[in-house]
Amino acid sequence: MLCLSRKVDYALISLAYLAERPDRVSSAREIAEVCRLPAALLMNILKRLHRAGVLHSVRGAAGGYAVASDLNTLSLFELCEIIDKHAHPARKLALHGPAQALQYRLGRFMGEVSVADLVMPGHRIDVPLEQVGVQRDVTKRETVSI
C-alpha cells in the first residue's frame, strides 16, 4: 500500500524550512539541527533535490541550499520519485482489487497536490489537529499532537 517514506518526510520538512527563508541559503547542518533531523541522511536528500533542480547549492563556508524552482509546479508524487527512486509509489501495486483502486486514486491525488501546498507559508493544507491524531516524539519521550 502507498505510504510516504521517512526520506520524503524529511525532504518536506527541509523544503518548508528553506521556503520560509527565501532570501538566504541554509546549510544542511543548520537545517538538521533546527529541524532535529539526522544530518547524514539529510545531506543525501538535499543532494538529490539539488541534482533534480529543486534546490540551488552554494559552496563554501557561507554556503548551503536555497529553493531553486517553483514548488507550485512540483507535485508530491514527483517529489517521491526524486527522493525514493527505487520505492516509487506506483511500482508496489496492492494485490486486491479494491486496494489497487485506492492506491491508484491516492497516486492521482499525490500528482495533484503540489509541494507548495504542503510547505509554503500561507499555502499549507489546513487539517484540524484532532483529525491528524497523536504521534509519539521519540526524542523527548512524550506524546505530541501533529
What can you see in these coordinates?
It is a single chain. The chain has 146 residues and is mostly helical. The chain has a single domain (6-145), classed as Winged helix-like DNA-binding domain superfamily/Winged helix DNA-binding domain (Arc Repressor Mutant, subunit A, Orthogonal Bundle), CATH 1.10.10.10. Helices cover 47% and strands 11% of the residues. The protein contains 7 helices and 4 strands. The strands form 2 sheets. A two-stranded antiparallel ribbon has the order 1-2. Strands 3-4 form a two-stranded antiparallel ribbon. Helix 1 (6-19) crosses helix 3 and helix 2 packs across helix 3. It is elongated and about 55 Å long. 19% of the residues are buried. Mean pLDDT is 81; it is low at 136-146.
Give the SSE layout.
Elements: H1 6-19, H2 28-35, H3 39-51, E1 55-58, E2 64-67, H4 76-83, H5 97-112, H6 115-119, H7 129-132, E3 134-137, E4 142-145
Antiparallel strand pairs: 1-2, 3-4
